[in-house]
Each structure stands twice: as C-alpha cells, then as structure tokens.
Amino acid sequence: MKNPWVIIGIIVVVLFGGAIWYSGMAAEKNNEGVVVEANVKGNSEAVTTLVKYSDFQCPACATFYPVVAELLEENGDKLRFEYKHFPLPVHTSAQPAALAAEAAGQQGKFYEMHDMIFENQAEWSRAAVPNAFFIQYAEEIGLDIDAFRRHQNSSILRDKVRSNFEEGRELGVTGTPTFFLNGERMSFSTYPEFVDQILAVIDPSQLSEDSTVELESSSGSDVIFGI
Predict the structure, then answer these.
(1) 80 forms bridges with which residues in the sheet?
(2) What are the boundaries of each domain within the chain?
(3) What are the residues whose beta carbons fall under 8 Å from the beta carbon of 7, sequence distance 6 or more?
(4) N or C end: fewer C-beta atoms under 10 angstroms in the chain?
(5) Are 121 and 60 in contact, with CB atoms under 8 Å apart?
(6) Which CATH architecture has domain 39-205?
(7) Predicted model pTM
(8) pLDDT profile of the chain (227 residues), mean per 10
C-alpha cells in the first residue's frame, strides 16, 4: 500500500497548482482589453493644463469638484484638465472608488463615474462595502456591468492608480486636493483665489476687480502664485 502522506502531498500540489492557474486566468480576463490613458477633460490640445491630485473620499476634493466643473464649463476650450489619483491611506474606500472610476473609463465614461462618486460621496463613503453603490452608479450611467466588474479587478488599472500616487509623492504631494497649473504647484487660500490664478493664465479679462493675482508679463515670465 502506498504511503498516504505521498497521496496527500500529490493532492495538495495539484490543488495548489490549479489555484495558481485559475488565478492567472482570472487576472488575464480582468485585464482583457484594458487601455491605459490619461483622464483628460476640456481641450486636450490647450496650452494651459490644470492637474488635480485627488482622493474620491476626501471631503475637500468633493468641494472642489463643482468649482473645477464650472471652470471647464465656461473655459473648457482653453483649458486641459487632468485628474490623477492620490488615494490617502486614511481613506479606506478611496482606492476602490478610484478603480471604479477607472473601470468606467474603459467604457469611455471616467468623468461620468467621477461625477457620480463625488456627488454621492456622503452616501458611499460611510458604507463598510461601498461597491454596491459603485455598481448602482455604473448601471445609472449605462455601463456594461459584467465588463465593469472585471475591470474593477484589473491589475493594470490598479498599477495605474499606484503610479499616479507615486508620481504625486515624487512631486511633494502630501494631501488632497493638490493642483498644478502648467507644472507649477498652486497655492491659494480661497476658491476665488484658486479660480483667479487659472483665469490669469487662460483669460485675464475674466479676472475679478479685486483680484490680487499678478498677470504674466509680455516678456514671457511665469505667472506669480504669491498667496
């Protein structure tokens, strides 16, 4: 009679190998068709670029969402806006929210999901498992739910979110939201100051009368962010 421990060992090896094979097949399926692209809104060819390092669970990021939306509505032809992920470790649902937005982006609806997530932050951010809300939002914006679920688990998209975060850290980002205007980190204390700094670059005629932002000189020197 064969040693039963040998038989048990063979069974364990087969099961372990099968689990690895299945895991690899699932990962391949989750990454099927995934394309990594920048999350850009506005005029992709505009000379002025505003980059936002943001956390979907961050309350301050949510308050800036309508401010940026209004800027894009009124000046979208002159502004290239790019959203980058910076999910803070303290916000445990920020990473799943980022992946939900990226999964929607694979169907061309990153910003539709972005908007739903920020507009309903008070709802999903309190949930122990927020994914049910993300699925609901995906249905509301007309996504293929099976594809959406797969892409939520995509290692390629997870790496993209991680890459955004690491890039932000290299630039000195420690909190959210952090904005960069044409590569320069912005500093401001009020929403009007934030808006005026951007308008000073793209359309100075829209500056408020009491604006303290210094305009770009004719010699081509950089805009001064002295707040």
Answers:
(1) 42, 49
(2) 39-205
(3) none
(4) N
(5) no
(6) 3-Layer(aba) Sandwich (3.40)
(7) 0.82
(8) 66 58 67 97 97 98 98 97 98 98 98 98 96 98 98 98 98 98 97 97 84 50 30
